[in-house]
Amino acid sequence: MKKESDVSFNDRIKTINCTSIDELWELLFNPRNNLSNLHSNFIFRGQGNAAWNLVPKAYRSDFINLHRPQFSSGDPSRIDYPSQCLIESLLLQSFIEHCDSAGLSIPGDCTDFRSQFCTDKMYEGFGKNTKSWPDERLHELMALAQHHGLPTRLLDWTRNPFVACYFAARTAIFTENTADNENHSSNSLAIFALDLSKIESIPGIRPIKVPGSTSVNLAAQDGLFTLIENSGWRGDAFSEGVCLESKLPKNNTDILNKITLPISFAGELLLRIRKFGFSAHSLFPGYDGVAAAVLDTFRAYNWGKED
Hints:
Layout: E1 14-17, H1 21-29, E2 42-47, H2 61-67, H3 81-102, H4 111-117, H5 121-124, H6 139-147, E3 154-158, H7 161-174, E4 188-195, E5 205-208, H8 216-220, E6 223-228, E7 256-262, H9 266-275, H10 280-283, H11 287-302
Parallel strand pairs: 1-7
Antiparallel strand pairs: 2-4, 3-6, 4-7, 5-6
Helix pairs in contact: 7-9, 9-11
């Protein structure tokens, strides 16, 4: 079966290929340009490989393949839509249980929330069709879980292009191509710029904004999310690799921009944005962020010098 991650959506993306960091800088940080204008409605996302589509973690093959044997409904080659939602809901329930064990609070917590989402009632909404998943009362919990590494169907964005540059450069110098993207290699990283004002009327894409108090990481990164619809009926194979690009109108490049930069500049880009106060220690407040900043800096200085 062909996955959406195997499909090109170039007719829905305006691609700008930069050949230097200064060229990238001019596009993202010069207020005279549309992307960085104070009155613009763009949000940003950085990815370490320009060939990767904008796919939430819960829709990626590596995540689905991990759970396929246990939730394949008798057919080891596929998972149906309710089974996929069951996996996602079980992860959230387990996240709540571990937060309880660690004495950590969760957003929206109350007796009614627990009775609805910490029992089998959570599964009742997608017995035959999964269009109602996820309940909007779960958005803050999903955001918290996502920012601490749990796969969800949310896609991370930021209002700050510096933050997007950090994640693009950092991912480029630390991450090898995953199995999910082994046929989608690129010699460039990418910064995506999405016009938030133009997606609110597009079916299948929903902007999700949660309070900064949901997570210190979320606040530090000036973060928000998009929820990409991927619902269907019991017995129908879940669609892997569903991406944001697939929901955009065909032959329209006014909504999503992709700015690319050769990966050879990733280390230099990471060091440059560090001078403006953006590094792991500022984006992940705490000792873990400080340690990551140290490793980022060493890796960035040596980037391209290994050979």
